[in-house]
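subagent[fold] <- orchestrator: predict structure for attached chain, return tokens only, no commentary.
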Amino acid sequence: MAIITYAVGSSHGPTNRTPPEEWTRLGAGDQNDPRFDFEAQLAKVRPGMEEELTLEKRQERGAALKVALEKLRESVAAANVDIMVVVSNVHRIWPDDSQPVFGVMRSEVLPVTVPNNQPFNPEDRFKERGSRPKPKTTNKAGHPDLANHLITGLIERGFDIACKDGLREGEAIDEAFGFVYDLLPEGSVTPVVPFMLSRYLPYQASAERCVALGTALRETVETWDSSLHVGLMASGGLSHQVIDEELDARVVAALTTGNLVDLAKLPRERLNGAPGTPEILNWITVAAAMAPTKMTLVDYVPAFRSLAGTGHGLAYGIWD
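subagent[fold] -> orchestrator:
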């Protein structure tokens, strides 16, 4: 039978690939983010935010995230898993797309964006889907057999799972799922199965439901008639586009102590304090799947980018 032997958690997004000298440019883009009230955040930000934005502090944190990512790459290479299941969230949804709470992509081939090494433009986030230039893509391997087993097994365990068999012509999987290729060794042919977990309201699972999902995910993998070793990845989080250090500290403490009870109690209102913060649900799911193994924290980096406290609570961890 198949077994889950390893898991990794990593924040994704523009902060990882933007020089810290330019983080404040990302912060300037937050002023036009229609998903939250920038001025309201500015009015209630904690004292001392100016100190978080000094060039020295940003460079220190930019260096730290690079070290953390390199440690994750080394760990993933050493784990040598046969398949990676990436638990994350579809970010850009076409207006006529279905929008399930849980879903699995069972494509044999996954189109993945080829990095163009261009600076991230924060204004691109708010352009209509069809108005953005289509990315250059390359094909990576999926794993329909495991995908179908996950769908069947999780439905048997009480989870209604949608499936997606492909993308529109010229489209590629989100960085949310594609970021795994930044951690896998260059040239890796390891198949990837995207597990889609909605971060959007109202079709968003509770933290408690994600704990149950993680347990069911482990049980389902372990009933797969295969000798392959499966790895998991929690892609995304922690709090962003407004950093909630208190919430992040609570989540990290629960992950590193294996406290699933506290993770299950995380309130929906707090998890939706900023648009990207519900990605914490990905980590909760993976933590439950790996229990009783506890997460080893590689680093937590609060990458502030504006006086309103916007930015990204970057986290990097390993279950091994």
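orchestrator: received. Logging for downstream: Residues 3-276+291-308 form a domain with the Protocatechuate 4,5-dioxygenase; Chain B fold (CATH 3.40.830.10). DSSP finds twelve helices and eleven strands in the chain.
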